[in-house]
Amino acid sequence: MSTQTVSTDVVEAKRITTQTLQEMKAAGVPIAMLTAYDYTSARILDEAGIDVLLVGDSASNVMAGHETTLPITLEHMIYHAQCVVRAVHRSLVIVDLPFGSFQSNPRRALQSAIRVMKESGAHGVKLEGGMDIIPSVERIISAGIPVMGHLGLTPQSIYRFGTYKVRAREEDEAVTLAQDALKLEQAGCFAIVLEKIPRELADRVTSSLSIPTIGIGAGTACDGQVLVTHDALGLTTDFNPRFVRHYAKLADVMTQAVQAYVADVRSGAFPSDSESYS
């Protein structure tokens, strides 16, 4: 089978699975991933052709208005995942295990992952961390639950880092990250998110792994890319890191639409005769 044939097959897959992502890496087809937290947005993203929808703990920021991802609970994540799964027909749906739901011990991690899978119908979970979470990753995978890893800038550890600056610029941290990536692959992860690390390191890690890497602020060498949908669509106006590209400015569109609605209500132009019942 030619590479072009494989590429066409994976892009047109009726249902994206972890195996599809592996085939995309092998075929050199970049993986497109965005976040989703509600039914309406997830339906639009799924129909638009997104490969992976991440029900991210970033919901703590963009949906609930918290400063960090730490306050969101497992119950909140399950609720958002339920909304997303109901909308999806093609995309792979992965759910973040939130802070406090897996760090304490592998048994708790497994219980959290099982709740996500059973109560939401999602297709897998994502865990932040390296060597310290390997026992939890292995325990979850032993139950047949797919796990995506997450290295580099891990927002759940923000108070330990003390900053959102690029991670692993120093050689010691870069070496540790590369080792952690290999350990996560060996533990059974089907993919790894690499967040806000030097592109040369992301290239090195991606080349060393047989599983896909998904970058966010990690350059073009990764096997795919992920953004927070609210950032990509210009719904957030106070967060503008270098790695975010605004594909629309929906905050401006919404503001203009609401202002027009208010003006029409004030003037009596809405509702019109055609929008009223006799």
Give the topology.
Blueprint: H1 3-11, H2 18-27, E1 31-35, H3 39-47, E2 52-55, H4 59-62, H5 74-87, E3 92-96, H6 106-120, E4 124-126, H7 134-142, E5 147-152, H8 158-161, H9 171-187, E6 191-195, H10 199-208, E7 213-216, E8 224-227, H11 229-232, H12 250-267
Parallel strand pairs: 1-2, 1-8, 2-3, 3-4, 4-5, 5-6, 6-7, 7-8
Give an account of the 3D structure:
- The protein has 278 residues and is α/β, with parallel strands linked by helices.
- The chain has one domain (3-232): Phosphoenolpyruvate-binding domains (TIM Barrel).
- The chain is built from 12 helices and 8 strands.
- It has helices spanning 3-11, 18-27, 39-47, 59-62, 74-87, 106-120, 134-142, 158-161, 171-187, 199-208, 229-232, 250-267, and strands spanning 31-35, 52-55, 92-96, 124-126, 147-152, 191-195, 213-216, 224-227.
- It has an 8-stranded parallel barrel, surrounded by 7 helices.
- β1 (31-35), α3 (39-47) and β2 (52-55) form a beta-alpha-beta unit.
- α3 (39-47) packs across α5 (74-87).
- The radius of gyration is 20 Å and the shape is globular.
- The N and C termini lie far apart (64 Å).
- The relative contact order is 0.11.
- Mean pLDDT is 94; it is low at 1-6.
